[in-house]
Amino acid sequence: MSTKSKIVLVTGGSRGxxxxxxxxxxxxxxxxxxxxxxxxxEADKVxxxxxxxxxxxxxxxxxxxxxxxxxxxxxKVTNHLIxxxxxxxxxYLINNAGYGSYGKITETTEETLDTMYAVHLKxxxxxxxxxxxxxxxxxxxxxxxxxxxxFTFGDFSxxxxxxxxxxxxxxxxxxxxxxxKIRVNTLAPGAIETxxxxxxxxxxxxxxxxxxxxxxxxxxxxxxxxGSVVSFLCSDDAKWINAQRLEVSGGIHI
Length: 254
Fold this sequence. Notes:
- This protein has 254 residues and is α/β, with parallel strands linked by helices.
- The protein is built from eight helices and seven strands; from the N terminus they run βαβαβαβαβαβαααβ.
- It has helices at 16-27, 40-52, 70-85, 110-131, 157-176, 200-203, 205-213, 227-233, and strands at residues 7-10, 31-36, 57-61, 90-95, 135-144, 183-189, 245-248.
């Protein structure tokens, strides 16, 4: 007897780590709802990739900087679920959408700081607040942080401090959301070969080699090093993991 597919909502699922999360979650038999910022063509490719794996997918545009659009987004998602699943509820939420900011503390503008707050802390806080009533009991939330909350590397202060706050938020969510037996964990990637930070790790060979030399396993990360761990956390195999920060970095700076 086949079991009903679980449903996962991933923010920022059209590229980079988010894309790999979506595809890995689909490989594990989950149906996917994900957001993208502006590139519909890339989002459509990911939707087709999920469908090719035998699962359902739909993508919605969402700029997580604009909290005033969240209510409308939640309404679209829940209406879609009612129409297609008979219930507005889903099982797993991945707060992934975001991008980095590089610059010295002495040169970072107030606008940059406000944007990093809006994207990496305010958005996960308010989106989760609005989506919480629709997350099924025994579901899970994964908040995507960064290795940069444990170690310093380069001039990423405005980004890293928001991710540090997100890790604290994860623990508070785990405590509060236990009323519905919802597990909340933080996943902190190390340096990954994506377009993050302008693709510096991927495209700058010298920078890539430097990070690899400081990593126990001798290389930088790849997107598929991350998606499989997210899919694990959104499974019954991880049913007793809660309120934890899991760094997936190959052992950098140990």
